[in-house]
Amino acid sequence: MDEEAELARFKWLLISGVAFLISAFFAWSELQYALRSRTVEAELVEVRETYTVGRRGRRVPKLEVEYRFTEEDGALRLERDDVSTDWPLPEADTVAVQYFPGAPGESRLAGHRNWIALVVFFGTLAVVAVAGWKLWREARAAIEQSNRFTRNRRRG
Predict the structure, then answer these.
(1) Is-contact 145 134, C-beta < 8 A?
(2) CA-based angle 104:106:109, to the nearest 5?
(3) What is the DSSP string of 61-81?
(4) Are 39 and 97 within 8 A, CB to CB?
(5) How far apart are CA 71 and CA 77, in angstroms?
(6) Residue 74: how many CB atoms within 10 A of its CB?
(7) pLDDT class of 76 with cuts at 50, 70, 90
(8) How far apart, in whole angstroms, are the C-alpha atoms of residue 130 and residue 12?
(9) How far apart are CA 57 and CA 55, in angstroms?
(10) Are 52 and 63 in contact (CB under 8 A)?
(11) pTM of this prediction?
(12) CA 32 to CA 62: how far, in whole Å?
């Protein structure tokens, strides 16, 4: 295989590895919410539309949802989560919330997942796994070829 093709494969593997590590950081948060968080009904305090400044200075609308809930140990928490403007708000005065016990500021509306991080994580995991398998296969073939060469030299 020529050097340009090898360099291109290495670049793709490097970029995929970096993307995998970055997405793993964000996917780890999702895993923690899935395993360690508690879900509780929270009292809806206020919902207001706000804006963030996006790329190129463009204003992007969002909903700021403020809620109040009591932890299992009795601690009262007043927190908020920012969601897109098309987020389905409940008709009642309560909303389901996921939170980490004893960690103020670590809560979110139930179902507010970071799907992009999960898709990127599993996509880059697949790319890294396939590249690793190909690398292992090529290395094994080179070792077998080297072993055949060594055996043939000993015989001859």
Answers:
(1) no
(2) 120
(3) EEEEEEEEEE-TTS-EEEEEE
(4) yes
(5) 7
(6) 6
(7) very high
(8) 12
(9) 5
(10) no
(11) 0.66
(12) 25
Sorting pLDDT into bands at 50, 70 and 90, what band is 1? low
User: Is 79's pLDDT higher than 60?
Assistant: yes
Q: How far apart are the first and last CA of the chain?
A: 29
Q: Which structure tokens are listed for 20?
A: 């995998």
pLDDT averaged over the chain? 86
pLDDT by residue (tens digit) across 11-42? 887 888 888 888 888 888 888 888 899 999 99
Element holding 95 (H helix, E strand):
strand 94-99
d(CA 48, CA 132): 48
Check if the beta carbon of residue 46 is closer than 8 Å to that of residue 66.
Answer: yes
What value, to the nearest 5°, has the Cα angle with vertex 128 and ends 123 and 130? 95
Other C-beta atoms lying within 10 Å of the C-beta of residue 96:
14
- 121 class by beta-carbon count within 10 Å (0-12 exposed, 13-18 middle, 19+ buried): buried
| Cα–Cα separations (whole angstroms), residue 58 to 44, 54, 55, 88 | 29, 5, 6, 24
Please give the DSSP secondary-structure letter assigned to residue 101: T
Q: Are 60 and 82 in contact (CB under 8 A)?
A: no
Q: Which two tokens stand for residue 113?
A: 């997942």
